[in-house]
Design goal:
The chain is mainly α and 123 residues long. The chain has 2 domains: 78 residues, Multidrug-efflux Transporter Regulator, Chain: A, Domain 2, CATH 1.10.1660.10; 41 residues. 71% of the residues lie in helices and 3% in strands. It is built from 6 helices and 2 strands; from the N terminus they run ααββαααα. It has a two-stranded antiparallel sheet with strand order 1-2.
């Protein structure tokens, strides 16, 4: 599919798709005329990238962790022995910050739910 369709399906702008390519996060195929050609697996990868970016993971970490998240064959073959401890610490730290944010958001959601119940008179 062309970049416009990949953009529509993934919900990611064409500009972002080009940026992901520039950063080495995706490698779309090329048609004979030089146009980018996106397959479904690349669009699926874009959705993972978007999710990771929205969680606040920096591109440099996404570039390293992405193959482990999207290529089950390489994930089992690579294992964690080949991943440096510093990188794992960074990912763990990001995960812990994300868990803390989730806890705060869950508490806020519970407070809003309670407020709405009280406002409706549900007790």
């Amino acid at each position: 599919m062309k970049i416009g369709e990949a953009s529509r399906i993934s919900g990611v702008s064409a500009r972002s798709l080009r940026h992901y390519e520039d950063e080495g996060l995706i490698v779309p195929g090329r048609c004979g005329n030089g146009f980018r050609d996106y397959c479904q697996s690349t669009v699926d990868r874009v959705l993972v990238i978007r999710s990771l970016l929205e969680s606040g993971l920096p591109v440099r970490l996404i570039r390293d962790v992405l193959p482990q998240l999207t290529d089950s064959a390489s994930a089992s073959a690579a294992g964690t022995e080949s991943v440096c401890a510093e990188f794992l610490d960074e990912v763990r730290s990001h995960r812990d910050r994300l868990a803390a944010r989730i806890a705060v958001l869950s508490a806020q959601q519970a407070a809003l739910d309670a407020y709405l119940r009280d406002a409706r008179g549900d007790r």
